[in-house]
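--- STAGE predict ---
source: upstream dedup step, 1 unique chain passed
mode: sequence only
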Amino acid sequence: MILTGIAVIFSMAVMSPSTVFSSDDDLIRASLKKFFAALQSGDVTAIESVIGGELLEETSVLLRNNKEYGDYLRSYYTNSEFQVEKIIHVTDGAVVDVSVIFENGDREQFTFLLAKKQMPAGGDSWHIVKQKRLSSDS
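--- STAGE serialize ---
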């Protein structure tokens, strides 16, 4: 599973608070919202659109070749709730702590590394490039 299958240790230099912009936080939250909605609906094409770098490389075969994976994700994340707990801007992007709360009350905690990408048509987009599962109640 994308969220639980990758163990990555993040070691990034934290940027000063003056470099943190709320518009970036809004874009980060929007990317994560799209990612979590894709997990809940089992939409692997949408998942691929918001991940990149190392995470895309590690999961591309699973996402593209396992036809049942979307159904698995939809079943696993049905009725779950996602909460962004903390966003820390770092030199190479942002580290984001997220909780997943399941219908039965179990929680899983993850840390994501997101990188900013300038879009050809203008503007910025944030992509999830690494993830680490921190803990699970289940």
